[in-house]
Design brief:
Elements lengths: L4 E5 L6 H4 L3 E5 H43 L3 H6 L3 H6 L2 H15 L2 E14 L3 E12 L2 E11 L5 E11 L1
Length: about 170
């Protein structure tokens, strides 16, 4: 039964005569709960800003990639993608696959955002997954675009998948 209460001071020690009137006595368990709540609130508010910034930058990168797909600039999509994306296949295979998609479905008309999710991958680190419903001139698909940050801080393509919507 050594410590049953903790002390919070609302005035600084330089004003000692007024200190006695401003001291609150709270049980230790309540004090610890309050500190935990304050700490969690600070962590959530600080990480929330970072997540929102990442979401905005991922959205901007997705818009750039969609623009490149609309103009059939597949080489730029490949060149600006992350190292792990480029290691999966060479540029000529990627371009051939994208040209085949274009031949089958024609040009990308719209990309409507459906969802965003931030996560962590053991290989890629923090990932940003964006899901779109994409409309081509001849068909629709569900697009899954995964982005990661490069060592210089730029959002880069890590994975890109199109699943046809019947």
């Amino acid at each position: 039964m050594f410590l049953k209460q903790s002390w919070f001071f609302s005035l600084d020690a330089d004003r000692a005569p007024q200190l006695k009137a401003s001291v609150m006595r709270l049980p230790i368990s309540l004090t610890m709960r309050l500190l935990k709540i304050l700490f969690l609130g600070a962590v959530i508010s600080l990480s929330g800003c970072n997540v929102e910034q990442d979401r905005l930058e991922a959205k901007k990168a997705a818009e750039r990639i969609h623009s490149q797909l609309q103009s059939q600039d597949y080489a730029s999509v490949y060149r600006e993608s992350g190292k792990s994306f480029r290691e999966v296949g060479d540029e000529s295979k990627f371009i051939a696959g994208m040209r085949q998609l274009h031949e089958e479905h024609s040009s990308l008309k719209t990309a409507t955002p459906v969802a965003y999710q931030s996560g962590v991958d053991s290989d890629a680190g923090r990932t940003h997954t964006l899901i779109f419903t994409v409309e081509f001139e001849r068909g629709r698909a569900r697009e899954r675009m995964v982005l990661t940050r490069s060592p210089t801080g730029q959002m880069q393509l890590w994975d890109l998948r199109f699943d046809p919507i019947p």
